């Protein structure tokens, strides 16, 4: 049985293939769970280091776990290619994150979200991050609702999404 693909479907597929095959730098978002074993954090740090060494711009948020590992790797490779977007103001971030975040050159705060719960603010923050990227790499558990919703929103925006599950 032959399936017909409309012009918009062909355009979408062509756009996604072009993004994957692009040899120049890309804007890549790297997001994931706060609760990550140290061995996985080391892998995420190496991945972000390699992505930034290749000239890609990396975006993440400021939480512990996945995001912190992504920041460490990017900072080692080229701090000028890292952008960290916080769900709330810097003052609302955990103390262990603030020390690292103080070193980030391109730090975006969202103090207008300080009155929200962290879950609500994180959801808005993730939306902002995916609106700025071409590709999303996400590390999650099968019950990570906010992250899985972010991946779906990125797919809906025709972003290239790579989702790794910890469980």
TrEMBL record:
<protein>
    <submittedName>
        <fullName>Cyanobacteria-specific protein</fullName>
    </submittedName>
</protein>
């Amino acid at each position: 049985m032959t399936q017909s693909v409309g012009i918009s479907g062909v355009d979408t597929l062509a756009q996604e293939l072009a993004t994957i095959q692009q040899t120049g730098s890309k804007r890549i978002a790297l997001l994931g769970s706060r609760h990550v074993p140290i061995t996985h954090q080391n892998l995420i740090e190496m991945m972000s280091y390699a992505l930034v060494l290749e000239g890609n711009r990396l975006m993440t948020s400021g939480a512990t776990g996945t995001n912190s590992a992504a920041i460490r790797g990017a900072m080692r490779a080229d701090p000028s290619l890292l952008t960290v977007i916080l769900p709330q103001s810097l003052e609302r971030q955990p103390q262990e994150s603030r020390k690292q975040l103080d070193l980030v050159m391109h730090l975006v705060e969202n103090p207008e979200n300080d009155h929200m719960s962290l879950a609500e603010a994180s959801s808005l923050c993730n939306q902002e991050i995916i609106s700025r990227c071409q590709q999303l790499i996400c590390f999650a558990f099968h019950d990570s609702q906010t992250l899985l919703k972010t991946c779906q929103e990125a797919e809906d925006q025709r972003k290239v999404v790579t989702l790794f599950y910890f469980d």
